[in-house]
Structures are given as structure tokens and as C-alpha cells.
């Protein structure tokens, strides 16, 4: 199935106006594809209706795996592979396992969460980003709306964006080259043209 590439892009200069616009547009039945901000905006996730992140559950799972591996590893080494009497204690002295168990629990949790985040967000090294507006990392808040994923017409959504405070409303259509861009092309463009090749045309 070919990916839809036609979006409406609303540009906002203030995050309070953006938050109100997100809530108002969702009440009007507009499906928002994504919002990009130059800095974190509190309560934006709630306004967009995002579900609670599953990352804490992943952290618990990887932490439990680290705890299990640490106890099994130490028990096997100290009890069977290389038994040693230290301070007159038994070979398998659970209280002595606490420091290494704690460290491996933290280590597994940290690497597990980082790996889960990269995989779930598709952040692979050769990933070519789709940039809706290059000011999204500068001083503007960018709201992208997938036209094909909405019941309202393009003109109706444009009118709503303007009504709720968007400074600009632009169309963004990703070209075939952008959809199938190779990592080498992206790096080449980055060094020769900055990010303008995959972003909004510079006016003036």
C-alpha cells in the first residue's frame, strides 16, 4: 500500500495557542497526524490523546531480566563453576549478591529502554527524516494533518487552522525522491544545501 504524502501544515508561534488549537481541532473531528515542537510542551500529549507510554513496563521487564540473570550468574559461578569460601560464608550467599544484582538490574533496564525506544520509533541509523517545516527545530510549532485521513475537506481544515491561531497554513507533499530517499542522498544534500531540499522552500 502506497504511503499518503499530502499534508496540511499549520505553523504556530506560541505554544499556548497551539495547545488550544489542538483541543479545538480534535473537538471538530480533525485527525492530527503529528505536532513538532522546538522544545517540550507540557500537556500536549494529553491534548493529542496519546495513551500512556508502555516504556515503564518495558523498564520493569528488562530490570527483572537483569535481576534474574545476575542471581543465576553469581549462583552458578560461586556455587558450581568456581566455589570459594569468603569470610567463612556459604558458597551461595545471597546478601553478597546484592551489589552486582543491583548494577545488572540498572544496566539491563537502561539498555533495554534505549533499544525499545529506538526500535519503536524507527530510529535506525540510515533513517531519512521527513521534515514538514525546517522551523520546527527553530522557533515555530508545526502541526501536520494528513488530508486523506480526515472527513473534512482541505479548505475546511485550512479555515479551522487559521481560525484557531495558525500564522501560516501550507501544503506539504513529499516527492517520490523524498519518499525513497537514500541515506547517501540525504547526507549529500545536508552538506551541499543544508536541510532545505527536504523542507519548506525559503521565501524571498
TrEMBL record:
Keywords: Membrane, Transmembrane, Transmembrane helix. The chain crosses the membrane at residues 58-77, 97-119. InterPro entries: ActD. This is DUF3341 domain-containing protein. It comes from the Bacteria. PANTHER family: LIPOPROTEIN-RELATED, QUINOL:CYTOCHROME C OXIDOREDUCTASE MEMBRANE PROTEIN.
